[in-house]
Every structure is written in structure tokens, then in C-alpha cells.
Amino acid sequence: MESIPPELNTPTYIDVLEQFDAAADWFCLDRNIWKRLRLPQRALCVTMPIRMDNGDVHVFQGFRVQHDTSLGPTKGGVRYHPGVNLGEVAALAMNMTWKCALVGLPYGGAKGGIRCNPKNLSRRELQRLTRRYTAEILPLIGPDHDIPAPDVGTNEQVMAWMMDTYSQQRGYAVPGVVTGKPICIGGSLGREEATGRGVVYITLETLRHLGIKAEGSTAVVQGFGNVGSIAARFLISNGIKVVGVSDSTCGVYNSNGLDISALISYKKSKHTLEGYSNAEMITNEELFGLECTILVPAALSGQITEENAGRLKCRIIVEGANSPTTSGADEILRERGVFVIPDILANSGGVIVSYFEWVQDLQKYFWKEKEINERLQEVIITAFNEVLKFSISENIDMRKASMVKAIKRLADAHLARGLYP
Ligand code: NAD
Fold first, then answer.
1. Which pTM value belongs to this model?
2. Whose CA is nearest to atom 13 of ligand 1?
3. Whether pLDDT at 1 is above 60
4. Which candidate in 35, 75, 99, 111 is catalytic?
5. Quick one: how far is CA 8 from the chain centroid?
6. CB count, 10 Å around CB of 42?
7. In percent, how much of the chain has pLDDT > 90?
8. Which residue's alpha carbon is nearest to atom 16 within ligand 1?
9. Which DSSP letter does residue 188 get?
10. Contacts of 359 (CB under 8 A, 6+ apart)
11. Quick one: which of 15, 48, 182, 256 could link to 132 by a disulfide (CB 3.0–4.6 Å)?
12. Atom of ligand 1 nearest to the CA of 267
């Protein structure tokens, strides 16, 4: 592999590049386009001195990375997590480029993040940090430039503060600067549920393709935040029994199926799954050993590794999280015949409805929820079927088929636009 700049050289960036290289090699991508696409176009590192509630000043580090702007403005979430680093943010930005291209959105990929533990910050500290971060990345963002959204550790309230900070600088309300914001300030109906809903649309299509009935199928979900909990809810409403879920503290298991509504209420009040009484407590390690039809990783990157890929007991993996599977693990899963739906396809529901939100904000005309869900279903299922057809005709797996289709769209755009100057 060609060398990686030291500041990006992290496990997640290496994994994302390995997937890119494998797809690019497969169709002999133009060498110059290849060189361009393996690096982000822009990366901004910021430091933010924040007055904590106890009077101390703490200096936080944050990032915003734009991978590619050839198809339009960039789009991608903002992550608040202690493990955030430039390499990871750049990898996730690159993944966003492929995701947007794959489902036909007029966006390039971006990602942002702050290295912090939001659970240890008060609401006031979180607001000050978010506003200062927004001010620091202000030169890069805007409805025509780069449009942030929620990701791990952020939510619609964080988006509202970002939208307000940006709007205060402009002197008028600019709802299109972020997506995933509250409905009352220009958010879209259906956005909060979109990623989990999309994961389930894809799961049902996969089951249909493999000739497996939803009724009688079982699922295990790692991560019980926005994506995981909503996916679990929709899996159940489609007749699939969810037998195990986990969050960062622990996992819960019930072979008869978990009561997901009760777990969502429990998690909302206790902020953890620990202590939930109507199921067996298990570890995250044990969760990955559970027998099931479908495994939905919906937590962080790099969870399915060479160490645990051999003992997964599932038939299908639908990647709700971004980059949950390492390249080494991917190889093992392929050999074992596990049918993997890659992140850029499986969790694209979020960015698809974010795109709908942005369009509604720009048009200042809002759609009904039914229309949004139907359009989401149409876009994501069309993308799934195109990838499936390509994977069958070329005899390649769904990840490579998705990557090749996405990279080809980018390559066409770069070749059409040419080099500047
Ligand atoms: P979230 O913060 O709402 O939830 C994350 C969940 O993962 C939490 O329940 C947390 O406890 C759990 N978790 C963290 N570390 C864990 C570990 N080691 N083991 C088990 N669980 C762990 O975040 P989210 O928005 O649900 O995002 C989850 C994943 O989905 C991320 O990879 C994110 O990039 C991806 N994603 C999110 C969206 C979206 O619209 N929110 C869209 C596309 C992709």
C-alpha cells in the first residue's frame, strides 16, 4: 500500500483505504484519480478553550474534514467521543463520499468531531463547546459548502445550537446549514428515525433475496443509540425477533425476544442497559457469540475484528454503524459465507433523509412524513437492487460492488471537471 501521511495513519483510516484500494484495483481506476481520492481535500484542526461550570478552563480539540467537493457541497456528521482523532474523522469523511455517491446524492463527504466525553459535560458546558466549535469551523460550513448532521454523541439539540450560532453570524436564520435539527426550526419529519428505518428496509430486501422469511428470523443489535434502538424497533414491527442488544456498558439477552419498547424507556431513564431485569445480562463479547439470522452492528468502528469474526453465529450482517468491520474480519466473513451489507449502503437512510431536509430548507416547503418515508424507501431499495445486480453479474461481494459503483461516479466527475489550474 502507498504510504499514508502520519497524521492520518490510524486503524480506521487504514481499513477504509484498504477497501478503497481493493475496489479501485478491481476496475483499474485511473492512477491520478486514485491518488487524489485516497486523501481528504481539506482538514481543519481546532482547539477550543471552554469555561467549565466549576470555573476552570479546559481546552478541547476538534476537527472538520471534507473529503471531496467534486459532486457538490460536503455532508457528514459531527461526533463527540473521547476516541475522536484526525485519522478517524478523515476515514469517516471518505466513507461519506462513497455513501452519497452510491445513493445518487449531489454531495461529497465530510465529517467532524470533538474529542470529549459528552456524558461528563453539563448541558451548559455542552452548549458552550458546541457554539465555540461551530465558530471555529465557520469558514468551512454553510448550506452551499458543508452541512453537518448528528453522529455518535450528538443529537438534534446540538444541531440546533450549531444552526443558531451560524445564523447569529449571518444575521438571519439559515436552517439549511445543518440537518437533523428539531422540526420547529426547519428539521424534517422522519429524519430521527431515517437511519434505523433504512437499515430495516435493507434487511427486509436482503432476506427476500436470500429466500429467508422475516417471521422466524432473529436479530442481534450492537449499540442502542439512535441507529440501534430504532432499527431494533422496526425489526420487531416487521416480525423479526430481536434476541440481544447492547450499549457501551453491557448487553441483554432473551431467547424469546426482547421487549424493545421497554428497553428504550429503561435506557432513556437510566442512560444505561445495566440493571434491566427482564433479560439475562451479557457482555459485549458474548453478544457477538449469539446465534441469530441478522447481526446489526450499530455502535462504533472496528468492532468486528479478526479475533471475533470467526465466532459470529449470524447469516447476515447489516452495517448500521460506520466502518464496524475491519478489512481482516471482512476476509474471514467472506470465506465463511456471511452475507454483509456494507455501511455505505446499509446506513445511508440517514443521509438520504438529511438530503430531503436540506432540500426542504432551501425550498422553504415541507413535505409530509408519509412522502418522506416512501421516497427514502424508493431511493435505498433502488440502490440496494442496483448493487445486488452488479455484485451478481460481476461475481463480487456487496461491499466491493457498492464501492466500485460509488468510486466510478466520483471518477467520472473528476475526469469531467479536470484539474485546476
Ligand atoms: P448514538 O450515540 O446515538 O449511539 C451509539 C450507541 O453505541 C450507544 O448506545 C452507545 O452506548 C453504544 N456503544 C458505544 N460503544 C460501544 C461498544 N463498545 N459496544 C457496544 N455499544 C457501544 O450514535 P448513533 O447515531 O446511533 O450512531 C451509531 C453508529 O451509526 C455510528 O457508527 C454512526 O457513525 C453510525 N451512523 C449514524 C447515523 C445517524 O443518523 N445517527 C447515520 C449513519 C451512520
1. 0.97
2. 248
3. no
4. 111
5. 19
6. 15
7. 99
8. 248
9. P
10. none
11. 48
12. 9
Q: What does the pLDDT look like over 265-321, one tens digit per residue?
A: 999 999 999 999 999 999 999 999 999 999 999 999 999 999 999 999 999 999 999
At a CB cut-off of 8 Å and minimum separation 6, what does 186 contact? Answer: 163, 173, 175, 176, 357, 360, 361
Exposure string for 166-177, b = 16+ CB within 10 A, e = fewer: beeeeeeebbbb
Q: Residue 298 Cα, ligand 1 centroid: separation in angstroms?
A: 5
Name the grid cell of 204: 427486509
Minimal-distance CA residue to ligand 1 atom 17: 248
Do 204 and 238 touch, CB atoms closer than 8 A? yes
DSSP secondary structure, 48-78, as one string: EEEE-TTS-EEEEEEEEEE---SSSSEEEEE
Residue 360 burial by Cβ neighbours in a 10 Å radius (0-12, 13-18, 19+): buried
Which domains does the chain carry? 6-175 (3.40.50.10860), 194-346 (3.40.50.720)
Which pLDDT band holds residue 334 (cuts at 50, 70, 90)?
very high
CA angle 159–162–167, rounded 5-degree value: 125
CA dihedral sign, ordered 112, 410, 330, 353: positive
C-beta of 247 in contact with ligand 1 (< 6 A): yes
Instruction: Tell me the pLDDT tens digit for each residue of 108-144.
Output: 999 999 999 999 999 999 999 999 999 999 999 999 9
User: Residues 280, 283, 287, 290: what is their CA dihedral angle, to the nearest 10 degrees?
Assistant: -60
**Residue range 175-180: mean pLDDT, rounded:** 98
d(Cα 109, Cα 133) in Å, to the nearest integer? Answer: 19
Q: Do the Cβ atoms of 38 and 17 come closer than 8 Å?
A: yes
Instruction: Output the nine-digit C-alpha cell for 362.
Output: 432551501
For 79, phi then psi, to 5°, come to: -110, 130
- 394: which residues sit within 8 A by CB, 6+ positions away? 401, 404
Cβ 41 vs Cβ 112: under 8 Å: no
Amino acid at 176: G
Burial class (CB in 10 A: 0-12, 13-18, 19+), 55: exposed
Residue 43 main-chain phi, psi, to 5 deg: -145, 130
Q: Which three cell numbers stand for residue 6?
A: 502520519
79 CA distance to ligand 1 middle (Å):
10
389 a catalytic residue: no
> Rounded to the nearest whole angstrom, what is the distance from the C-alpha of residue 322 to the centroid of ligand 1?
9
